[in-house]
Amino acid sequence: MLHGEDSCPAVEEGGEEDQHRPLILERIEKETGRTWRTVLSQRLRKHCSCTPEKAKSRILSFFPVLQWLPCYKLRDWILGDVMSGVIVGILLVPQSIAYSLLANQDPIYGLYTSFFASIIYALLGTSRHISVGIFGVLCLLIGQVVDRELALAGYLPESSLSGNDSSVPLAGNDSGVVGCDRSCYAIAVGATVTFTAGIYQVLMGLLQVGFVSVYLSDSLLSGFATGASLTILTSQVKYMLGLKIPRPQGWFTLFKTWYGLLSNLWNTNVCDLITSLVCLAVLIPMKELNDRFKSKLKAPIPFELFVVIIATLASHFGHFNTEYGSGVAGAIPTGFLPPQMPMWSLIPNVAVDAFSIAIVGFAITISLSEMFAKKHGYTVDANQEMYAIGFCNILPSFFHCFTTSAALTKTLVKESTGCQTQLSGLISALLLLLVLLVIAPLFYSLQKCVLAAIIVVNLRGALRKFTDIPCMWRANRIDAFIWLITMATSALVNTELGLLVGVLVSAFCVLGRTQRVQVLELGRAMTREHYEDLASYKGLQTHPDVAIFRYEAPIYYANQSLFKKSLYRCVGLDPVKEKSRRVKFQNSKPQEEAAGIPTSKMDEKEAEAPAAVTLMMDTASRYLRRIVIDCSAVLFLDTAGVNALKEVRKDYGELGVAVELAQCKTSVLDTLERGGYYRNQKGGDAGENHTIFFTIEDAIRHVESRSTPNGDYDKS
């Protein structure tokens, strides 16, 4: 139906009238009447019911290999997977032997660990690119636990052993295992810690707590890894110098280790020192060349393997062990040892250590998985990754293995050599199997100082983070502070404590940010209904008798008092102090009249209950009637926050200044409703309707309609 010209003015007047009314939205009624029994039964039916389709889906999700293997593109992917699998397998041989030294285990156990982890993750993992195996930080943590338990069981420290002799528990100490030498007990401890850590990881997967990885920020993990790298570097110096000193336990191990090194410096084995220097002189520049020309090389050159082969031949034919007393890897058996159960009696002793190891292992794995998944355009399941890495620890622990996780260096090599699926992990496992069955005994004469040099060279990436400190500080000082605190605690105090301190510092930094937030006074843009901070932008306008403020943080128990102080300071009037001043004035007025002291008209005017408050601002006075608080940035409220808003409204209301809230989120509105903020507002009943302002402009128009009109906006 078309309206004539006479009806147009009426329509326009009606439209203008609607624009001046606050926006009204009708809430969707939430479902009520559901008891906890109903919710529990529904969830049980959802998760415990079993249909053929659901069973198939669960099996496929638990074994991702069943999803990608039938869809494998043989012609497109096989070459890249084979090449990456072979290259990573070649790198795993020397690194597995070397990192066994860090974990205080025999070399054969490092090869076992890499072999089983590669197979299990290929079956259960959801990432196509990460390489799961031995990781330096976890080896350090395992080695610390192993050393401690060996000492508690009464086994002689490694420095007290001569040659390749084994040791048994000291007399009078029944903590050790009968018929089990030092090496046997060491791997028993390592396997027990690994089993316990795997149980933790699987339980976290069952409880769907894969989200915990988001609480370990990149700066925290980077600082932890760098601090642990300093500890690893320090622990390897004794092997590079050929010193036989025990690994210190407890806190401040870095200082204790360096004290032991400097105290025994004159006992340095010259053969080990020269070999270490030669290995470093070869490996460091060769690694740099690999990094510089990685875009041009189809695959990185395995210089570590070349160094291991040449050093083994030199040590064998030069009789470094017998002639110069150089420490060597010793006998490495072929094949596999029979399975062995974890030491159940040892689990209470290592439970706490295993938990920190489980958290670090999962955090490293999921962060690398998500990083490469995002880079290549697919997704990973955090909970399935928890299952995968958990079973990579549980199952191998029965076969003399220690803890594993994703490793960044080998993952980067795997990706750069054309890896497409986890078939490359199976090919790496085949190469390790060949070493285990045939080649392993040939490494008998390999010097430990060569393995230590390989570990030190592989720490370059973590140690380079020190050069990034200025950039981190300029980018974000809080993240840089977290990095420094975590790194310093991990390196100088205790590795496990560094992780805990990093988490606590991160949490306190988040809380601190909510403590430092200040209330901002807003002004209106000249051309549209938009409000921003007056201190940040020019040309904004303020209303002569309405002040608009914004608080950009949640209001809860920890910052509610700071919110009130900041608001009072920004308004320029503390209502509590103002009421106290007026009470004192009223009490002193009769005394002044009795004494014949005249009272000024201004004091009499202020003593009366005003309809507004005059504020003395920086440049001019301001006649304030209403305060509007923009709650758009308030994410949530708790009971203390609701009470703080009640107190602000009540205190200013007693001075004749009304307080209105605008742009509250739905969750904030619900909290205000439950907390009774709108109850008895303006003296009304609990059921009385109250106005909700979805825009700042609606709140201003509402308060203007309830007060005397007062001109246009004043330009600030």
Automatic annotation (TrEMBL):
The keyword Translocase does not apply. Residues 584-603 are annotated as: Disordered. It is found in: Membrane. SUPFAM superfamilies: SpoIIaa-like (SSF52091). It is a multi-pass membrane protein. Pfam families: STAS (PF01740), Sulfate_transp (PF00916). InterPro entries: S04_transporter_CS, SLC26A/SulP_dom, SLC26A/SulP_fam, STAS_dom, STAS_dom_sf. Residues 536-703 form the STAS domain. The chain crosses the membrane at residues 82-102, 129-146, 185-207, 261-285, 297-317, 346-366, 387-409, 429-459, 480-508. GO terms for cellular component: membrane. NCBIfam families: sulP. This is Solute carrier family 26 member 2.
